[in-house]
Design goal:
This protein is of the alpha/beta class. It is built from 17 helices and 25 strands.
Length: 520
């Protein structure tokens, strides 16, 4: 027996087994007027596992899921993992070509889909991939839970999974090339859940609202919620008004938002704010948000924000900025992504994997038990991402003397203008302070003299007029003339990736399409 065996974790299935024993009568999942207790969740997981067995699924196989925000998205995922299968979620708004790529690249044996939304897409994928088993979830009349699992209700839960099994293959966004499959085994998923349970300022009563896709970050948060017997409330879609209404009606105490949703809430005047103000921990992350907009949130809704920073290669686990550090008495900290999570080593390194001095930019790198094993069938890219025994994030960051980390931007987003490096986020943070600006994205565009010139694409607030001269002067005063935009375009919106992040690759293509050289 090895030391690794002696010190290994349990599996995600054992986590839910423990929750069923400890919190049997507590609500686990809440949706559309329905509630499933932890005892009921275990019963559904056992039934779904047997349904998958009946379709020939077993340890070592791979399952893909195509569904929106419904309780079965979580039930299928963790039932398959309990068999020792690897699971992959297809993004609900992804294109058919992207879905097909992920199915082929992951080696999927089965696609389970929601027939209410994705019948046409699933059948098309089945025709294109004849060896793929394509199975609908179905919907029970009384609850909407899957008819796929219904014949097996009452079955005992036989867990075949082991900690070393691959539990999840997540795919990167693919904005700079083909998506990469990120390998996580049960042990890294379990450690991520334990670390986030420890690092985040959870309320005493956990009623967690999910309004982002369960196929991505929001779904991974069910593990730390279950660790403490909390309830995951599932909303099928997001609007600022529905978010405010649900937080009030369901007495929500915590949840997760991406910055795009936060900005929509902030810019919505006709809103019952009581429910939002009562939420004690609103996690946010996945994309940058300007400090000025955070200030507006804190002034309007109170000190209930908690920033998380991580990547799919180590979900949610790099750093944390808890609510009490979102302090208007220290506004400079609103630009920070926080301090290292307990259990993680975070460093800012140069090109030779050596630490840079505090206050100097470098690549943010991480070590810890939540780190991926690597990229599926991509040894060269795995070696590059894990060079020097660090996970290389690709994010440029600085560390201050107190141990707070500040993201400057993605290394690939850096603008080189006249030989000077400009990090777009620093420009965006200044522009976002203008009272007429709703959203902004800064990119480099072709320039015959400077190579690249700084351009700002600005979405104005409703009814506002953008004073370009004022904005350019503000950036010049704050950051110097090199950072000041050479031009500003006023736009209706900024393109977003399927994960809700500003899609700067798509934005740059608008300006670089006639060039022989591209920085994308």
């Amino acid at each position: 027996m090895s030391y690794l065996t002696l010190t290994d974790t349990a599996t995600t299935a054992h986590l839910f087994k423990h929750a069923g024993l400890r919190h049997a009568a507590r609500p686990a999942l809440v949706w559309g007027g329905n509630t499933l207790t932890y005892a009921g969740l275990e019963r559904e997981l056992a039934a779904m596992a047997e349904a998958l067995r009946a379709h020939g699924m077993k340890k070592g196989m791979r399952a893909c899921l195509l569904a929106g925000n419904r309780a079965d998205a979580l039930i299928v995922t963790y039932a398959a993992q309990s068999l020792g299968m690897a699971t992959t979620a297809l993004h609900p708004i992804g294109g058919e070509a992207d879905h097909r790529f992920v199915l082929e690249d992951s080696g999927a044996d089965i696609l389970v889909y929601c027939e209410r939304e994705f019948s046409e897409r699933a059948l098309a994928l089945g025709r294109a991939l004849p060896k793929l088993k394509v199975v609908p979830l179905g919907s029970r009349a009384n609850s909407g839970l899957s008819t796929l699992a219904e014949p097996y209700l009452g079955a005992g839960w036989k867990i075949d999974a082991e900690p070393a099994d691959i539990s999840r293959i997540s795919y990167t966004g693919g904005t700079t090339g083909k998506p990469k499959g990120i390998i996580h085994r049960h042990r890294s998923n379990m450690m991520a859940a334990i670390m986030t349970r420890t690092a985040w300022d959870w309320p005493a009563e956990v009623r967690f609202l999910s309004v982002t896709p369960l196929s991505h970050a929001s779904g991974t948060m069910f593990l730390p919620v279950a660790l403490q017997g909390g309830a995951m409330h599932i909303a099928p879609r997001f609007t600022p008004k529905s978010y405010a209404d649900i937080t009030y009606a369901e007495r929500i105490t915590c949840g997760f938002l991406v910055p795009t949703q936060m900005l929509r809430i902030l810019d919505e005047a006709d809103l019952d704010e009581a429910g939002i103000r009562a939420v004690s921990m609103i996690l946010y992350g996945a994309a940058p948000i300007a400090p000025e907009r955070l200030k507006q949130w804190l002034e309007r809704f109170g000190q209930n924000l908690q920033q998380l920073y991580g990547q799919a290669e180590s979900p949610n686990c790099f750093t944390v900025l808890p609510p009490h550090l979102h302090d208007l008495k220290h506004p400079e900290r609103l630009a920070s992504c926080g301090i290292a999570n307990p259990g993680m080593q975070i460093a800012v390194l140069d090109g030779d994997n050596r630490p840079v001095a505090d206050g100097q930019p470098g690549e943010l790198c991480a070590r810890g038990p939540s780190i991926m094993e690597g990229y599926l069938n991509r040894p060269e890219e795995t070696a590059k991402a894990l060079a020097g025994d660090w996970l290389h994030s690709g994010d440029v960051a600085m560390r201050d003397k107190d141990g707070f980390f500040y993201l400057v931007g993605r290394a690939k987003d850096m603008i080189i203008t006249g030989g000077f490096n400009v990090y777009p986020k620093e420009v965006e943070d200044v522009i976002a302070m203008d009272p007429d600006v709703a959203a902004v994205a800064v990119i480099g565009v072709p320039d015959p003299e400077w190579g690249e010139a700084v351009k700002a694409c600005i979405v104005p607030k409703p009814g506002a007029r953008i004073d370009t001269a004022r904005i350019i002067a503000a950036v010049k005063a704050a950051k110097g003339s090199v950072y000041a935009p050479k031009s500003i375009d006023v736009v209706d919106d900024v393109p977003l990736t399927p994960l809700g992040k500003p899609d700067k690759v798509a934005l740059r293509k608008l300006y670089w399409k006639d060039q022989t050289r591209s920085i994308a």
